Amino acid sequence: MQVTKPLKIAALSLLTLFSVSASAQCTFHNSAFKSGERLSYNLYFNWKFVWVKVGTASFDTDQTHFRGVPAYKGSLITRSNKRADNFFVLRDTLLCYNTLDLAPLYYRKGAREGKRYTVDEVYYSYPNGKCHVKQFRLKHDGKRVCEQHTLSECVYDMMSIFMRARSFNPTGWKKGFAVNFPIVDGVKVYPAQLRYQGKVNVKGDNGHTYRCLKLAYMDRDDDEKKWKKIVDFYVSDDANHVPVRLDLHLKFGSAKAFITSISGLRNAEGALVK
Is 143 exposed, middle or buried (0-12, 13-18, 19+ CB in 10 A)? Predict the structure, then answer.
């Protein structure tokens, strides 16, 4: 039976609608940030029971395009200072592209930690109501590992889930409340969660004190039974949910980041403690 042109057009329209709705399953309304937001931090490392300033970090958000799709680009850059370089070189650059309604599109992490340099990349697509990820890891010895997974649920990287989490509404949350989600890196998909740990006042390195929500980022490998805490986020208890302080629980020690400057906020600052 010959298919008429109107039927072909209708079929294409239905396929297009389905493709858009499939991608929309992983979307989320952004109420926390806008293009042009700039956040800067001081980094500290626990060196023989003494906290020492070891570098700086910056988190920038800009509206742009990724492969023709309007997108937010989030970039996080950490740099150790010359004093710290004598002991341990830290050069991390994390990058993500999300649609304007926060569906992940691309993630990259380039990490130089000591003498090791690795690169993780993740490409996201949303065919047939699924979430498909292409994952790549360039190891420090030059070997390249590739993985692909198609999942029935949405998955995220560390950058995209935090950009999404900034728009969560914590009203009614109690200590211990957890948001579960699958997380990806260059080779794996594994369980992760953000766990609410209450409110606390935090003083930044900009001289201001903020009322903050404390969120613990936890993950767990398949061969592990217990959740492992990776980062404690202290985010401002207002509509911006700015990260004011981060406590990083690293394999090689403990580190902290404190806010030094904030600009380009979407909403009024409502968490300043006077």
Answer: exposed
Give the model's pLDDT for residue 83. Answer: 67
Residue type, 31: S
Which of 258, 268, 256 minimizes the C-alpha distance to 231?
256
In whole angstroms, how far apart are CA 6 and each of 12, 15, 16, 20?
Answer: 10, 14, 15, 21
Over residues 29-45, the pLDDT tens digits come to 999 999 999 999 999 98
The tens digit of pLDDT for each residue in 80-118 reads 776 665 555 566 889 999 999 999 999 999 877 666 788
Whole-prediction pTM: 0.85
C-beta separation of 242 from 266 below 8 A? no
Q: How confident is the model over 128-147, as pLDDT tens digits? A: 989 999 999 998 888 999 99
What pLDDT score does 224 carry?
A: 66
Do the Cβ atoms of 106 and 123 come closer than 8 Å? yes
**Mapped to the 3 state alphabet, what secondary structure does the chain carry?**
CCCCHHHHHHHHHHHHHHHHHHHHCCCCCCCCCCCCEEEEEEEEEEECCEEEEEEEEEEEEEEEEECCEEEEEEEEEEEECHHHHCCCCEEEEEEEEEECCCCEEEEEEEEEECCEEEEEEEEEECHHHCEEEEEEEECCCCCEEEEEEEECCCCECHHHHHHHHCCCCCCCCCCCCEEEEEEECCCCEEEEEEEEEEEEEEECCCCCEEEEEEEEEEECCCCCCCCEEEEEEEEECCCCCCEEEEEEEECCEEEEEEEEEEECCCCCCCCECC
